[in-house]
């Protein structure tokens, strides 16, 4: 079995690459062209773990993940919060007044609107932040710049024309660590988060009754998001994070009541809550 390899979506120097280096220093990284490729690398055993972004404090959820994760057969075994910083990168010797266009991932462009407007740059969407830095280096055109992490500037030999250009200082992305095997922490080992998906029965007040189980059992729900499945407007699936371990008596009772009102309940992972949560 392949070990000490962690997969991520993007090119070397992307934020996901930085998250891998922060959490698993010394591990080899496997860059993947798409989220689907990253999920496949974990599922097929080419990587032991995966580092996947699931939501951002400015742009909200990463929509693709909510569709891939429930049916992937993978388990969430950890989480990590990465403060997101973007820098305006250009060719060696380029100046901001030389620029006409800026390239990056759609989320990065959306998170750096102020500097784009200030300098009248044309934003151009690319598949990846670090990939845009590589392309700027390859094009050799001083009128083109990239919005990317500092690691990308170092990898692709670009100058930093402006630092920390994100619109909001609180810009943070939450990543989940995925594995083929569940790795639940022992009961009582510390603050634990449980993530699950469910679909309520299509009857009046089903969602209200299902969520009531968590209120009556004093379970703190930190996130609930709905999205359609199979193209059916009446068949919403919900992705939920709650504080607690599935073996905690209160959470176990809440999940048992939830199953009574739901067509399906699947736990995607129980894992240590990241210390970042304590400061939010």
TrEMBL record:
Q: What InterPro entries does this protein's entry cite? A: ACT-like_dom_sf, ACT_dom, Chor_mutase/pphenate_deHydtase, Preph_deHydtase, Preph_deHydtase_CS
Top EC category: lyase
Write down any Gene Ontology CC term.
cytoplasm
One example GO MF annotation:
prephenate dehydratase activity
Keywords of the record, alphabetical order, are:
Amino-acid biosynthesis, Aromatic amino acid biosynthesis, Lyase, Phenylalanine biosynthesis
Pathway involvement of the protein, from the record: Amino-acid biosynthesis; L-phenylalanine biosynthesis; phenylpyruvate from prephenate: step 1/1
Q: Does the keyword Ion transport apply?
A: no
Q: Which domain of life does this protein belong to?
A: Bacteria
Q: Which Gene3D superfamilies match?
A: 3.30.70.260, Periplasmic binding protein-like II (3.40.190.10)
For whether the record's keyword set contains RNA-binding, the answer is no
GO terms in the biological process aspect are: L-phenylalanine biosynthetic process
Domain annotation ACT: ranges: 195-272
- Catalytic activity entry: prephenate + H(+) = 3-phenylpyruvate + CO2 + H2O
Q: Which residues form the Prephenate dehydratase domain?
A: 5-180
Return the annotated site residues (Essential for prephenate dehydratase activity).
173
Under the heading CDD domains, the entry gives: ACT_CM-PDT (cd04905), PBP2_Ct-PDT_like (cd13631)
Q: What is its EC number?
A: 4.2.1.51
The record's section on NCBIfam families has: PRK11899.1 (NF008866)
Protein name (database record): prephenate dehydratase
């Amino acid at each position: 079995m392949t070990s000490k390899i962690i997969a991520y979506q993007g090119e070397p120097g992307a934020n996901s690459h930085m998250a891998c280096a922060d959490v698993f220093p010394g591990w080899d990284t496997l860059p993947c062209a798409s989220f689907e490729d990253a999920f496949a690398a974990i599922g097929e055993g080419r990587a032991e773990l995966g580092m996947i972004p699931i939501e951002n404090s400015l742009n909200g959820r990463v929509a693709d993940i909510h569709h891939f994760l429930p049916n992937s057969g993978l388990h969430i075994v950890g989480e990590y919060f990465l403060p997101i910083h973007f820098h305006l990168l250009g060719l060696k010797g380029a100046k901001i007044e030389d620029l006409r266009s800026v390239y990056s991932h759609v989320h990065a462009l959306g998170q750096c609107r102020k500097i784009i407007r200030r300098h009248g740059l044309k934003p151009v969407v690319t598949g990846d932040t670090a990939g845009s830095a590589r392309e700027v280096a390859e094009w050799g055109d001083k009128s083109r710049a990239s919005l990317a992490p500092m690691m990308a500037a170092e990898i692709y030999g670009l100058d930093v024309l402006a630092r920390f250009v994100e619109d909001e200082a609180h810009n943070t992305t939450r990543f989940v660590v995925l594995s083929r095997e569940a790795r639940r922490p022992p009961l009582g080992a510390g603050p634990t988060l449980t993530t699950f998906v469910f679909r309520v029965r299509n009857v009046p007040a089903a969602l209200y009754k299902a969520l009531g189980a968590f209120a009556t059992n004093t379970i703190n729900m930190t996130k609930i998001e709905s999205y359609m499945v199979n193209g059916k407007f009446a068949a919403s699936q919900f992705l939920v994070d709650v504080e607690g371990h599935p073996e905690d008596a209160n959470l176990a009772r809440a999940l048992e009541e939830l199953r009574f009102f739901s067509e399906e309940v699947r736990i995607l992972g129980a894992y240590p809550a990241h210390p970042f949560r304590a400061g939010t």
